[in-house]
TrEMBL record:
Pfam families: Amidase (PF01425). Signal peptide: none annotated. Transmembrane segments: none annotated. This is Amidase. InterPro entries: Amidase, Amidase_CS, Amidase_dom, AS_sf. Belongs to the amidase family. It comes from Albidovulum sediminicola. PROSITE patterns: AMIDASES. The lineage of its organism: Bacteria, Pseudomonadati, Pseudomonadota, Alphaproteobacteria, Rhodobacterales. Residues 26-457 form the Amidase domain.
């Protein structure tokens, strides 16, 4: 194992490969060794395809930004011929794909050496990763009694522990930003339709879902976003075009910005004292950098958006299960999906076609309400989560009441009240690891920007990283 492997981000490792100081095969050996040693405690890496990784190296890797860097795909989406998937579900276990997805084509072109997938909850639903198909929960390397988040929880745990420096994720209600917050990483959700969805998906969850990455550095995220940006042919939506790109944007600080500080939930209810302290700490840091910070919060219909989000995701879950059962020619069998998925089917049955279109209309109206809020503001500053990382089991998929699982007291939307708002509005948003509480747990800071302002938001995150570096922080379970 390379002594300083876990201390390097993907950009630095690719530079070592380019300089001939290490080979792609040696980096792969190191990553595989790390996974073998750490995965029994974490349960984060699954469906290892060492042969596919070795063959990619043998054939010659693309001359991309991350040539030779070990990499993992989330076990949900990012369809790839060489990488079968369970999709977090016993129903979908060992799914194989006839063609590669557009997002995988772009990731592969960066030159990464992909050797497996990372765990996800069934259907990508929920802020924890505890799917039955993996035989147990995925655990947080900062505290094995706590979740690394969801739905990209395995990616968060693998990157935080140093198995890989960066991993693929996706975000339909916070699924990149929640693990970033829980694992002390950087997670960025791009503007709606910034990345391609085809050919397997027209739009994920009415356009609310998008691919992304869990990284230890802003520069790695910037380079991946540049490499993957742009719609695929026939895409139903297009994001506003980028300027010079994310990498160019982070080369200099952004202009001084007007920041709205919200130290409560978006509806005014209180959050955990550690999370509130983290927000005020970030506000002081931003003010010290010359940004203008004032208290403010949106008056948008948060509760209506959350109800609409719940209807849309329930229908999406029911559709995917129905399509699978139709394709194989037999109905759903006992134990093939967990109770939350069954509850989604139950709830979807109560949502008519008109109800579904009304939910989509509610989400679109909410986006316009948030856009109006952002007219005098450049950034909304909140915590990423309303509490520190949750205990294992709190969000296990045992509750068949899907609406309660999402919106009940103390449930998903109380725990994660900020992230889904920006999936609904389509705006770019990021979780930045600036704060650790007295128990040594990471508390993410959430920054959201205007629709299309990805580069400016990425530049702000890079400025914060330079002002308060976090890469030296390592969890108790790490390479």
């Amino acid at each position: 194992m390379l002594d300083d492997y876990a201390a390097q981000d993907a950009t630095a490792l690719s530079a070592l490969v380019a300089a001939g100081e290490v080979t792609a095969g040696e980096l792969l050996d190191t990553a595989l060794d790390a996974a073998e040693r750490l995965n029994p405690a974490l349960n984060a890496v699954v469906l290892v395809q060492e042969g596919a990784a070795r063959e990619a190296i043998r054939k010659g890797l693309p001359e991309g930004s991350f040539r030779g860097v070990p990499f993992l795909l989330k076990d949900l989406g990012c369809e790839a011929v060489d990488f079968p998937s369970h999709n977090g579900s016993r129903l979908f276990s060992d799914t194989r794909y006839p063609v590669d997805s557009a997002i995988w084509d772009r990731i592969r072109a960066t030159g990464v050496v992909t050797f497996g997938r990372t765990t996800a909850p069934e259907g990508g639903v929920g802020p924890a990763t505890e799917s039955a198909v993996y035989g147990g929960p995925t655990r947080n390397p900062w505290d094995l009694a706590r979740t690394p988040g969801g739905s990209s929880g395995g990616a968060g745990a693998a990157v935080a522990a140093g198995i890989v420096p960066v991993a693929h994720g996706s975000d339909g209600g916070g699924s990149v930003r929640i693990p970033a917050s829980s694992c002390g990483l950087f997670g960025f959700k791009a503007t709606r339709a910034r990345f391609p969805d085809g050919p397997y998906t027209g739009e994920g969850w009415a356009g609310m879902a998008i691919d992304g990455f869990l990284t230890r550095s802003v520069r790695d995220a910037a380079a991946f976003h540049d490499a993957c940006a742009g719609a695929d042919p026939g895409a139903p939506y297009w994001a506003p075009p980028l300027g010079a790109g994310h990498v160019a944007a982070i080369a200099r600080p952004p202009r001084r910005l007007r920041v709205a500080l919200c130290d409560t939930m978006l509806d005014g209810r209180p959050i955990h004292t550690d999370c509130r302290a983290a927000v005020h700490d970030a506000a002081q840091l931003l003010e010290g950098l010359g940004h203008h910070v004032e208290p403010a919060r949106p008056t948008a219909d948060i509760a209506g958006m959350m109800r609409a989000w719940t209807d849309i995701v329930a229908c999406g879950t029911a559709l995917s299960i129905r399509a699978k059962c139709t394709a194989r020619g037999r109905p759903l069998e006992a134990e093939e999906v967990e109770n939350v998925a069954l509850g989604a089917i139950d709830h979807a049955a109560t949502v008519s076609g008109a109800d579904y279109l009304a939910a989509v209309g509610k989400v679109h109206a909410f986006g316009r309400q948030l856009a109006a809020f952002f007219q005098p503001w450049d950034i909304l500053l909140t915590a990423t989560l309303a509490e520190p990382p949750a205990a294992i089991g709190r969000f296990a998929h045992t509750d068949r009441d899907f609406v309660h699982f999402r919106t009940g007291p103390g449930m998903v939307f109380d725990y994660s009240p900020f992230c889904a708002a920006f999936n609904a509005s389509g705006q770019p948003a990021a979780s930045v690891p600036l704060f650790w509480n007295g128990a040594g747990l990471p508390i993410g800071i959430h920054l959201a920007a205007r629709f299309g302002a990805d580069e400016e938001l990425m530049a702000l995150c890079a400025e914060l990283e330079a002002a308060r570096p976090w890469a030296h922080r390592r969890p108790p379970i790490h390479v």
